[in-house]
Write a structure and sequence with these properties.
The structure holds 2 protein chains of 2 kinds. Chain A is mainly beta. Chain A has helices spanning 69-75, 112-123, 143-147, 186-195; strands at 2-15, 18-24, 36-40, 48-56, 59-65, 82-89, 103-107, 129-134, 152-157, 164-165, 180-183, 200-203, 219-222, 225-228, 235-237. Classes of the chains: A mainly beta, B alpha/beta.
Chain lengths: 243, 310
């Protein structure tokens, strides 16, 4: 964990209520895809934990959804303004266990962390497939970004207005995969857990107090004891999840 | 002329001398060693470790965090590994990075719980004093908090004092009609000091779902929102008792430490602010001498309770 003051390079709307921010500043504390930033937003007491979308040597980008007043305020911030963040939080995804052909499933704003994970796996010469799940065509973002990585990308929408009709987990039937990575709403995680034939890792969400393991606000029960989503997670292994 | 290089920040709690009055509060600092990754925690006066009970507890179901204007509401519910694991696992980890004495924060759900946990922790050299949290519900009296009646507060104080040799500070809840009478009851029952205040009961409702944000519905409000409440309670209790007070509730700066001490606190705990700024307590320790210079305070002990003069 490191406290970093980032400068906003851009804050762009992708689709309704979903924005992408590129932040200039120290990214050295991020070790794994699936880690997160904890962002101080002026006028709000608690920080907002948001997963990283992409990292380069001197920048970090995030994609976030406006879900309340804090993220609404964040969406109004402009290039050149600064954000006080705690960087390098959470365990993130472990790519050692992926095998040659892992599948990455993201639902809604669970998709962004899959992008840096996908890039990491490609750098390790693995051949990931990606499944993106949305409710409908109007919500689709990031599709081109994944296509530009030249990976097999499956688009699923609940109402069938784009890609194939169905849930992200439905795509698992059609894909041969060695391992599973998953991030999205809990219902989607559960469905991927139930329908997957391999081991995998699941990224969870919970209301957090601190984001770095001090307050025990986001604890959950696992087969191997109590874990803090913010520090021991947000990524849990399939074998430890109690469902 | 007071210069920050020559000020004295030393304070004393029941004969235990602290380098400074800044103490991270229980529940916001874990067992310390995690903060030792980001700064040297030996610079702190001390810290109060995570509220510990006789047996391991998961606490309440999540969500157990809600935001408030200038504050945080938590319903963690005393998640902790239990007194035996704290002694066998947490304290040894702490000792590797921390060479001062710690405040042992102990909770329970019956008098026997308190007595059992306190007598065990009393044997640990690293413990400087025991802070007994009496805000928990009493399972033997319909779940009402021990800290809400003089009788129960005095009973716990008395029973714990019988079995321990270290100083006992009773941590009081502000969710009562008259905190002063409860403070006096603890003093009369033999308490060596008092810690106040614990969190205030609060809640938030999610407008989209129409349901409480916290699974537990209500939780404890802390943060700057409660600082004036804490200050007033410390002020009132200082007038009524002779034993030392550790003041807490929304303290977020060296100036807040000074203000809390002027109200009557001998030392000050920093809680919620550690959660939004992990360097909070370290920065307050760093800033204290220059804040003292600004207000012409040569010896921090001299300001304890000055707000009562004249």
């Amino acid at each position: 964990m490191k406290k970093v003051i980032y400068e906003i390079e851009s804050n762009e709307k992708l689709v309704d209520n979903v924005y992408k921010i590129i932040l200039k500043g120290d990214s050295s504390d991020f070790k794994n895809p699936g880690q997160f930033l904890d962002i101080k937003i002026k006028g709000f007491y608690l920080r907002r934990p948001i997963s990283i979308y992409d990292i380069s040597e001197n920048s970090v980008s995030i994609i976030y959804k406006v879900v309340g007043k804090g993220t609404e305020k964040l969406s109004e911030m402009k290039k050149g303004e600064t954000l006080d963040c705690l960087s390098g939080l959470g365990n993130g995804f472990n790519t050692n266990k992926s095998g040659e052909t892992p599948v990455l499933l993201g639902g809604g704003v669970g998709i962004p962390p899959m992008y840096y994970l996908c890039k990491t796996l490609l750098n390790e010469n693995k051949r990931p497939s990606v499944v993106l799940g949305f409710n409908s065509a109007s919500e689709v973002f990031c599709l081109d970004a994944f296509k530009n990585l030249c990976v097999n990308t499956y688009l699923m929408t609940v109402d069938g207005s784009a890609g194939e009709k169905g849930f992200a987990a439905d795509a698992l039937k059609k894909i041969n995969y060695s391992y599973l990575y998953c991030c999205g709403p809990e219902q989607m995680l559960k469905s991927c857990y139930d329908n997957s034939s391999t081991d995998g890792q699941f990224s969870f969400e919970e209301r957090m107090g601190c984001g770095f393991g001090a307050c025990m606000g986001c604890s959950c029960k696992t087969k191997y004891g109590y874990k803090r989503i913010c520090r021991d997670g947000p990524v849990l292994e399939k074998g430890e999840i109690i469902w | 002329m007071v210069k920050c290089e020559n000020v004295s920040t030393k304070v004393s709690l029941s004969g235990w001398e602290l380098d400074n009055p800044v103490i991270p509060a229980s529940g916001t600092f874990g067992f310390g060693y995690e903060f030792a990754e980001i700064y040297d925690i030996n610079k702190l006066g001390s810290f109060s470790f995570k509220g510990t009970t006789v047996s391991e507890r998961f606490g309440n179901e999540t969500p157990r965090i809600a935001e408030a204007p200038m504050g945080i509401i938590n319903s963690v519910g005393l998640q902790n590994p239990g007194i035996d694991k704290v002694i066998s696992e947490e304290l040894p980890k702490l000792k590797k990075v921390y060479h001062k004495k710690v405040i042992a924060n102990i909770s329970g759900f019956s008098v026997d719980d308190y007595v059992a946990a306190c007598s065990k922790i009393d044997n640990e050299d690293i413990v400087g004093l025991i802070e007994v949290n009496i805000s928990c519900p009493n399972v033997h009296s319909g779940g009402m908090s021990f800290g809400t009646t003089c009788e129960n507060a005095a009973k716990i104080t008395e029973e714990v004092k019988k079995v321990v040799s270290k100083p006992v500070f009773i941590k009081l809840t502000p969710n009562v009609t008259d905190i002063v009478s409860i403070a006096k009851a603890c003093e009369n029952a033999g308490a060596d000091g008092l810690s106040l205040i614990n969190t205030l009961v609060g809640m938030r409702i999610n407008l989209k779902t129409g349901k409480p944000v916290l699974k537990n519905k209500t939780g404890g409000l802390s943060g700057p929102a409660i600082f004036p409440v804490a200050l007033a309670d410390v002020y009132k209790v200082y007038d009524a008792v002779k034993i030392p007070i550790i003041g807490m509730g929304g303290v977020s700066s060296a100036e807040d430490v000074i203000e809390m001490m002027m109200a009557g606190a001998t030392a000050v705990e920093v809680g919620a602010y550690n959660l939004v700024n992990p360097y909070a307590s370290s920065e307050i320790v760093d800033n204290l001498p220059s804040a003292m210079e600004k207000y012409h305070i040569k010896n921090i002990k001299d300001i304890i309770g000055v707000a009562h003069n004249g």
